[in-house]
Automatic annotation (TrEMBL):
It catalyses: UDP-alpha-D-glucose + 2 NAD(+) + H2O = UDP-alpha-D-glucuronate + 2 NADH + 3 H(+). The keyword Methyltransferase does not apply. Its EC number is 1.1.1.22. This is UDP-glucose 6-dehydrogenase. The active site is at 261 (nucleophile). The keyword Oxidoreductase applies. NAD(+) binds at residues 30, 35, 86, 121, 153, 264, 329. GO terms for molecular function: NAD binding; UDP-glucose 6-dehydrogenase activity. Substrate binds at residues 150-153, 205, 250-254, 258, 322. It comes from Maioricimonas rarisocia. One of its GO terms (biological process) is polysaccharide biosynthetic process. Belongs to the UDP-glucose/GDP-mannose dehydrogenase family. Keywords: NAD, Oxidoreductase.
Amino acid sequence: MKVVMLGTGYVGLVTGTCFADSGNDVTCVDINQQKIDMLNRGEVPIYEPGLAEMVRRNAASGRLQFTTDLRGPVAEADCVFVAVGTPQGDDGSADLSYVFGAAEAIAPHLREDAIVVVKSTVPVGTNRAVFGRLKELTGRDVHVASNPEFLKEGCAIDDFTKPDRVVVGVMDKKVGEVLAQLYAPFLRTEQPFLVMGLESAEMTKYVANCMLATKISFINEMANLCDRVGADINEVRRGIGHDQRIGFSFLFPGVGYGGSCFPKDVRAMISVADTRGMDAEILKAVDEVNNRQKHVLFAKLDEHFGGDLKGKKIAVWGLSFKPRTDDIREAPSLVLIEQLLAGGADIHVHDPVAVENVKAQLGDKLTYHEHHYDALEGVDALAIVTEWNEYRNPDFEYVKHKMGTPVIFDGRNLYDPEKMGAAGFTYSGIGLKSPG
Ligand code: NAD
């Protein structure tokens, strides 16, 4: 099939590359000339494990191309995917200007039988509005399908090529059949291809993200309570998780969710409810609890230093909003760092891949280190924000030797408090019982 992918971000580039890898002829289009130039030089503008090799291999085979000029590729395409950003607008609702901008750009060039597939996360009603706009612009009924994406940054290729399910919203069953063909190589293990109405598909994506965000805020609230009552959230987690109605997944306490999806999608859903005269009380609480959770590590540090962080040397391990990505959008690390800076701390940071993105925002306000151990030189405390694998099992003797004072505030509960106590650390996690 001939496929055009609009947007070469985390979703568009992964999706386009995976479609090319399964034998389709894919052109990725972006309005950002710099990104397209990089891709044409064989460089990948984002960090996603395995992606660079896959991009280069498919580009070399001629199945994957990159351009800013969509006219020719769109005129030939069977399917035109829209995978552009839908960031949060000023009022919390999703900013759909890129989606409609893309629809307007492709309209004059679409083949009569082309299918426009909206992969961006868009609030309910958007696909039908895109259909309406395309009708205004072309004078005909253009096939529009909703195909929300569930991949996770950090394991995007695996998620895309081995999805739990594929969801497609259509107005016409035949469109579903064409998309089923496109997805068939990824569904060989009998995972479901679910065809539904446009509105249900749009809602499915938001409901999934809101459910996951709710689980995180719920367990964070319970962990904070454990902190206050002398219980241990890990013991509680085990106690509840064996109940099959509850389970273990996505119930790890931490410093709050970040990234380009959960925060904005929860707020967009609140906004959708508002416009329908409904108060989304649970989601408002989820958002509020999450915002508060991003301050928990700072509160612990501040308390430890008696409210005086001026001149304190603090190491921060992990800057990206989660491991295996360089994405720092709404990252909890930024909230912590902002507070530490305001308190006058001397901040030493490490992250395996996100340093450049943080440098672009914060420049020389921080000291950046190539190796996570180097960030510990003489520090008064270490705060762990992102659970990168290399932080999971450090040489604790060496860590203690490097640090000025062996104090660790762990926002991801990576270590065993008892062992840490025995090794001579002052150690505090999220909802973990302190030793002794
Ligand atoms: P991104 O910001 O990384 O990339 C979007 C890209 O679209 C940018 O490169 C931008 O230049 C380009 N763009 C904007 N307008 C364009 C146009 N008219 N033509 C061509 N390109 C254009 O975004 P992302 O993280 O890939 O997310 C894209 C969508 O997918 C969003 O709606 C997001 O909510 C959703 N989503 C994201 C993830 C994720 O993990 N990042 C997961 C599932 C769904």
